[in-house]
Amino acid sequence: MRRNLIKIIATIGPSSSDSSIIAGMARAGAEAFRINMSHGSRDDWDKMVSAVSEAEDTLGYNVGLIADLEGPRIRLGDFNPLPLSPGDNVVFSLDPLEGIPVPHKEFFEAISEGDQILIGDGKIILIVESIDGMKAKLKTIQGGLLEPRKGIVISGKEVEAPALSVKDKISLDYIATKPFSHVMVSYTRSAEQIELVKSILRDYDRRDIKVLAKIETPTGVRRAREISQAADGIVVARGDLGMHFSLEEIPLIQRDLVNTARTQYKPVILATEFLSSMIDKPVPTRSEIVDIYEAVRLSVDALLLTGETAIGKNPVRVVQWMYRVIVKAQQGLVPERPQAIVQIYRLARGLVELVENLNATLVVYSKSGRFAERLASFRPTRRFYVGVPEVRVARAVRILWGSESIVVGDTTYEDGLRRTSKILEDSGLISPGESIVEAAWSSERGVYTIRVRNIIAPG
Known about the structure:
Number of helices: 16
Shape: elongated
């Protein structure tokens, strides 16, 4: 039985798109997998989705599957990688024949002389020396290997862009036909952006796909409360936040965004650079371990690994390290619980506290997964089991704090509880002499069922 309450999400990429590696990461502790729609083609995505499905067959259970939209990000075009040293000049141009291609007219309309340009995750820094229409001359301040398709940020500026790009709409068309449980909306700047994505998914009859808002720009931070209210959860994208804010501000922004989500009972995920040294090395740095430890103490729902598992040399080892640190860091953790004002949340909080007072195991049945979300928002101090009617719901529940989803079929709440408990007893996950609390909430009937019983040895 897994002991982590905070979940691990691993990104699939060139290093980890084989089903055996995905299964290995799942066994090591990953419970959901992310596909970054910024990279690859439909054929590439098909292979990744199929690999996850094959891994599920091997594992015997379902994992979360998350699509991450590219969003309205300015990116370099395609060219041969170019090494840059401090002092080197480089030309960016809308015309690929006249310099490094930047296929975004709005970039050239937004920049001014003296602007600082950050490439990738800020590893390369350039300064704008002159502008000539859709062409700009830049000087290298901090060098490195300039590579194609890397993101560009104009320090202190946000480039105007549509809520959803044409590519994002094409990606949503793909996502709606595949078994994704969540979609991350990159560079979320407004609640309307989230509502637009939900509307598109409704048109495809995919209301089951949870929409997560990635907060990674000043506008996103400023409007975090209204965005969180509209979304099914938020992702604190620390890498891109670090491109817009001074680095010393990031811990405070991270804390505030987590608190915003938690006080609204919304799942919250932290992302980026937890174990980035392990892209090349077999063990993490001490500061990375401390970073994970501090993230756990914020009581978030999940931590997201990106390049570490997508392009790193040993993605399974990365997940193993993340799991080890989470289990150690959560020892003695007593998460602060949000206030429960509305009755339905007061009932959920009361149930969590009842289970802890009895030192019992919590077993619930949830048709949509919303009951599990409410329980997870109050941070039970041990894992709880969620019987669900179908695979789609099982995948969505996977990223929630402390949850363990089990597909038992679409049935009555009473029968769903019975089936879930029986599976747990038959598998030895709950043992004779142990107390369990079984609970279900029927929104149609307005009935909250709670039953406390002891497991009796057979015979």
